[in-house]
Amino acid sequence: MDIDVYENYTSTSVLSGVNEVELTKWSAKYFKKNFLKHLGSDKNIQILEIGCGYGRYTKTIVDLGYNNITGIDISKEQVMYAQQTLGLKNVYLADAIEFLDNGRKYDVIILMDVLEHLELSYAIILLKKIHASLLSKGRFIIHVPNGLAPLTPPYHGDVTHIRAFSVDSMSQILRMAGFKYFDHFALPPLVTGITSLIRRIIWSGILNPLLKAFLLVANGGTSGGIYTSNLLTVAYKDKQ
Predict the structure, then answer these.
(1) Which ranges of 110-166 does DSSP label H, i.e. alpha helix?
(2) Which 3 state secondary structure label does DSSP give 94?
């Protein structure tokens, strides 16, 4: 018997025991710090967020003044929350591959915390569709759990996660989908107050160098050199 694990995903995972207002506020700060620079300054570009969930990042992009952002998700509960609670009229219930078959082209396609949920064959098909759906000079922004992070808490915090990624495995799957040009970025703790500032200092000054040294000794290399809990990758349709 097949079970739709995303039927109640908002209430059982994303917002289970979490204050939505606070999470959305934090997510906006996280997005502005790490992702906004990859969107560019043109507010009229065509943006698609695949797997937008309840809409926290789509809302951030709308609030930043971007005029052409569309979000899609396969969870009816998530889409209804985005539409009814966050007031997002540009979020739709849709399968990503079927949606991309409509032939529209985008300047930016965003995949936030989605790729880790997908079977490999589906993921590669989706990435190929994304590559084909990008305009010339288009950008593809990906956010995933980092498999080289200590104990990989984002990966283990959700039973629907199938895998985490590293710089090497992310590069591999992108090449399999036809991407030739991409950059990887670390995502150290976001500073929002004194506690997170202390975390950031300890991470940057102690833990990150120790992890790099450990991998150098154990494996003879740094395995990409990124050990933060999550990994950000930006892939490009053409050479930048």
Answers:
(1) 120-133, 153-156
(2) coil
Alpha helices (H) in the chain, listed in sequence order: 9, 20-34, 36-39, 56-63, 76-84, 96-100, 120-133, 153-156, 167-176, 194-202, 208-219
pLDDT along the chain (240 residues), means of 10: 58 62 89 95 97 95 97 94 94 96 96 94 97 96 93 77 93 97 96 95 94 91 92 92
Choose among 69, 55, 65, 49: nearest CA to 27.
55
Strand order through the sheet with 91-93: 91-93, 68-73, 46-50, 106-112, 134-145, 230-236, 181-186
Q: For the chain, which domains are there?
A: 9-189+228-236 (3.40.50.150)
Q: What type of residue sits at position 222? A: T
Backbone angles phi and psi of 133, in degrees to 5: -95, 0
84 Cβ contact list (under 8 Å, min separation 6): none
